Amino acid sequence: MSAFMIDIESDGPIPGDYSMISFGAVLVNDELDKSFYGKLRPISENWIPDALAVSGFSREECLGFDDPKSVMESFSIWLKENSNGKPLFYSDNNGFDWQFINWYFYHFTGNNPFGFSSTNIGSLYKGLVGDTFKNFKHLRKTKHTHNPVDDAMGNAEALLHMKNEMGLKISLK
């Protein structure tokens, strides 16, 4: 099984009523040399200006993004090509990120390669250090920019640090 760090940007709080604008995925391995970036045309007329502003894109720019079905199909193929067995979903905010990826996969392809599970790296870190008040974000090397590939990369770096420097037992094959 291969671990993938995922980050998404959206124009609202829930999929379906609002749109996933972009997402990034990084294969978590020692090289951190494989990533995927998707920019998706909105699927809804609904959008919240403040939510969209986080992504750095205007609504007009988003309307010119790629067809969501094509992006999700391409992402599914990329996951198959870069995964040793079932892909595992990791995220900084998995409750948010996973709901969009799951909805988009099922809506546009009929299947979610990740299945029904995801892992929150913040929770992993809290368990590893034995303190629910601690935060892992200081372990990132790549700056958090709200470009989803950058953000996924920083989170992947943090997960590798937990594994390589702090003794987290995790398989990244």
TrEMBL record:
GO terms for molecular function: exonuclease activity; nucleic acid binding. Keywords: Exonuclease, Hydrolase, Nuclease. GO terms for biological process: DNA metabolic process. InterPro entries: RNaseH-like_sf, RNaseH_sf. The keyword Ribosomal protein does not apply. This is Exonuclease RNase T and DNA polymerase III. It comes from Oleiphilus messinensis.
